[in-house]
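Re: How this chain folds, sequence and tokenised backbone to follow
Notation: Tokens come from a learned vocabulary of local backbone shapes, not from coordinates.
Start of record: The labelled sequence and token lines come straight after this line.
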Amino acid sequence: MEFYEFNWRPDNAMNWVIVIWSAGSGACLALALMHFVVWWKDRTAPANLIFAVMATAVAVLAALELAMMRAETPGQFGIAVRWLHVPAWVIVASLVAFVRLYLRAGRRWLAWTVVGMRTVSLILNFVFSPNINYREITGLRHVSFLGEPVSVAAGVPNPLMLVAQLSLLLLIIFVTDATITVWRRGGRRQALMVGGSILLFVTAATADGVAIAWGIISMPVSVSLFYQVIVAAMACELSYDVLRAAAFSRRLQASEAALRESEARINLAANAANLGLWIWDIPGDELWVTEKWRKLFGFADSERVTFARLLQVVYPGDRERMKQLVQHMFEHGGEYESEYRVIRRDGGTRWISGHGSVELDEHGKPHFARGVSRDVTKRKIAEEELRESEALFGTIADAAPVLIWMSGVDKLCTFCNKPWLEFTGRSLEQEMGNGWAEGVHPDDLQRCHDIYVSAFDAREPFVMQYRLRRHDGEYRWISDSGVPRYDAKKNFVGYIGSCVDVTELLSKEEALREFEDRVRLAAQAAHLGVWELDTSTNQIWMSDSARALFQFDSETRVNHAVLQDRVHPEDRLLRDSAVKAAIETQGEYEIEYRILLPDGTLRWIGARGRCVAGKNGKGPRLIGVSIDITPRKAAEAEAAKRREEIGHLSRVAVMGELTASIAHELNQPLSGIISNASAGQRFIDRGDVDLREFRDLLADIVADGRRAGDVIRGIQTMVKKGAPSRQQVNLNDLVLNVVHMINPNAMHHSCEVQTLLEANLPPIEADPIQLQQVLINLVINAFDAMRNTPLSRRKVVIATERNGDGVICMSVRDYGTGISEQARERLFDHFFTTKVEGLGMGLGIVRSIVESHGGTVAGENVDGGGARFHFTLPAGAAVG
């Protein structure tokens, strides 16, 4: 083996290798001792103990590296390398344990894999001679390092060294996974300081060790330097935690009495704010909740509350999402917010907003969760109503950059938010005081200063525009809005403001004007009138289309009163009430009303408006559109006329079905008239007329004639055309009249008609002829459905009942073939029929009549065979 000789420095010269490695070892031992003392005083801080062990191992590692560099024989070098793997094993194990305990992250199986792989390499290191790094050390070479001669080995590398290097690769993967978890959880400082430093310097140390071991570079092993940097980063983070904990402890001790008072205030405030407080003992699965919380969720005062019981009242569609949220909370800790629906005991659904946080025990397991819940149903309803109109604004607002700043009473800047710092590319310290003004364009600086100072001295809001230098050196136009800031005692404490980059907006003003022109042309083409009411002046701005719609020329000044004069007298109260309600509630309105033009023309107008808050102390503005819906109203009237004609044809068709009943009803009184008249003729022929008996005969003839007249008038009423007429109707009386009318039809079909009528039904506001048409249609259908039913089972049951508050249900049940699956979905469609001779209009008209009365109709198969058609109608006032 050939050796290189160097002239060693004189004994009194400074040896930088010894100085650097000794200083590093000493610093690590000092930090280890300090954090061991911290752990000794607080045994609940295992991370400090693990750090002390690791720092000691790094110090030992540095000492062994120094011994390797000072080795004089291959044997001394091999022994140093062999024992080097002991502190290396401690360092790897300590890093894994520190990440698990301090960061509370990292996969357990991967942690055990890292430690296990390093343990295997340690065992192999003592099994093979001289060590796991070399099969044989053939000699030593001396190289210059930091100006000093040091020893490096020359020998045959051992392939088993890959086991140790694989453990370091697994360590890097483990720390990367843990760092990502902590970053996503919000602990970005810990992720950068601890996870980032470990990843960076373990990777560097691994690369250095691999390059030296495999002979890629010729220099002494110096991985301890990289681990010393990791020790420094971990010590900095732990020291920060210690200082923060000490400060927190002092504050906690000083505020115990205030905390108790605060808790009482919180409970009082929570009740006043309709907030329900809760604490969840996770291992015991029991929730402590306030009385307000129980009322929000519909729980009894003495009812035990568990998570499983809570899930029972959560809306089914939200349960899985809540389970996933809780699972995520268990795995990652931290705070959470959620909104979900609950079903109360009365069947009502309410929206609940929850905010809480999870506390982990010393093993990183979820121990307690606490939070608040409040009813946000009204807000959800309002959000749903406003979502469409706010969607465009929300998209623009979310994409807009906003820079926020604050100043104190001395006019000097005290805070700039992150977007501001990212925009300028400067640090917070650089922006403090008057530093922010260094980025203002010189041509704008004096003007900005004057506006700011003037508004500040007057304690008034201000808006100004100026150019501000971005991080890339480009000046951007900024719109800066500031308002005075006051504390809880109304003391002035400075200003707060927000800035928006408006460079693109200013450059696109021309394009925006062109776009507005295109929108105006589109509105004119669609005959859509745009208007705006300024409540401060009561003046209305109207587009050209709007003026043409209301026949105002361009010179006419339009205000609320002038426009109201155009409105039809019968609709003025409607429009005035809608406008006032929108202004008072800062909401929207949508109405239809008539206008009378100067030439006497009547038009229908559809209008929609939204109230917008005023700016700079002005009153709110009402912005809206109007459109001529006269053609649509005419079409609706025509459609109503056609529906009435179809209903009339249906009634005529029904009368055809009731021919036998009509003939029977007329035959009885007509037979009586003929019989009585014949008897009177016989009395006269005999010459012995008894005036008393003759008077009775005439009275019977009159009664039978009136009865026949009633039948004829009923037929006329059923078939005559005309608008529906609503009146108070007793459904039980209507059923009895229909049963009387269809009784001959029932006998013709060999059917029995039964009635199950609930007594004392309240009257309903309805058209009796239309309801009679509905019931006759359903009963005739029932007769037809039982054509193939044995005679003993042919029965139709007509029932009435009260179904809940203010709702009356009428049903017709038959024992026929029932409703087929193919027909079920289209039962009430117009022109759909299952009868060979049917037109498919009956059930469609039934549905139209019932829905026009504010009711619903349905059909279903029932147990025991046959079908049941039923419809509901509201009792009391008319609907529709």
Summary: DSSP finds 27 helices and 24 strands in the chain. The CA atoms of residues 676 and 699 lie 10 Å apart.
